[in-house]
Design a protein that fits this description.
mainly alpha, elongated, membrane, transmembrane, MFS general substrate transporter isoform C, transmembrane helix
C-alpha cells in the first residue's frame, strides 16, 4: 500500500487552516469590540452604535470577552472538520 503525500500532509493543512481562521476571527472580534465601544460625535454613528453594543453584548455572552478569547484544541479540531466537510461538499 503506497501512501501519497497528499494523504499524509492534508490533515495537517486542514488543522493549519483552522488555526489561521481562528486567529483571523480573534482579530476581527477584537476590532469589532473596539469599534462598538468607541465614542464619536458623528450623529449617524451615534444612531448605529447602540445596535453594535447590543450585538457585542450578545457575542460576549457566546464567546466571552474579546481580550480573553482563546480557542482550545477541541475548537481547532472541530473547525478543521468543518473545513474538510466544506471542501468535500464542493466536489
Amino acid at each position: 500500500m503506497v501512501l501519497s503525500p497528499i494523504t499524509i500532509f492534508l490533515p495537517a493543512l486542514y488543522i493549519f487552516a483552522s488555526v489561521i481562521s481562528f486567529t483571523q476571527f480573534k482579530v476581527v472580534y477584537g476590532a469589532f469590540a473596539r469599534l462598538a465601544l468607541t465614542r464619536s460625535s458623528n450623529p449617524l454613528w451615534q444612531q448605529v452604535q447602540p445596535v453594535l453594543r447590543q450585538l457585542l453584548t450578545f457575542c460576549e455572552a457566546i464567546f466571552g470577552q474579546p481580550a480573553t478569547f482563546t480557542p482550545n484544541t477541541t475548537h481547532v479540531l472541530l473547525v478543521a472538520i468543518m473545513i474538510v466537510l466544506l471542501v468535500n461538499l464542493r466536489r
